[in-house]
Amino acid sequence: xxxxxxxxxxxxxxxxxxxxxxxxxxxxxxxxxxxxxxxxxxxxxxxxxxxxxxxxxxxxxxxxxxxxxxxxxxxxxxxxxxxxxxxxxxxxxxxxxxxxxxxxxxxxxxxxxxxxxxxxxxxxxxxxxxxxxxxxxxxxxxxxxxxxxxxxxxxxxxxxxxxxxxxxxxxxxxx
Length: 175
Description:
Blueprint: H1 11-20, E1 32-34, E2 46-53, E3 77-81, H2 84-87, H3 93-97, H4 104-112, E4 117-120, H5 131-140, E5 144-147, H6 152-156, E6 161-167
Parallel strand pairs: 2-3, 3-4, 4-5
Antiparallel strand pairs: 1-5, 2-6
């Protein structure tokens, strides 16, 4: 089964994103990669994937105790479903300012596993001034961040986690 995980960007949501998130001006509308100053490897176009259901985490950060780290393997695409993008309008001020976060501890443990891509269904691994430095931190360690995915519940099909194959198609990367 093929499932499109990209968020639909409309004229309205794009306008909202441009008003509420300064990075939207710099190629960050909708579902996107944060490759920072790195080149996205062609072998990352198709990856073994793992999606965790974290919809019940609530207001707190998603931490290491919330997932089975033993399932995470080198070079994987690891996604976190919270349902946030389905609950809060993409592009809104709340969407960019009050989204879930992964704990710094969890991010470090994922990076130790040498995964390829960290994926979230919200605006970033961290919020505010921590957002861009954390994306760079991940890229410097060989892991890219993909933000604003949708339809992850369709991948999970009610399971707490699901293994899958993921195809990614970045529109460009630095030379």
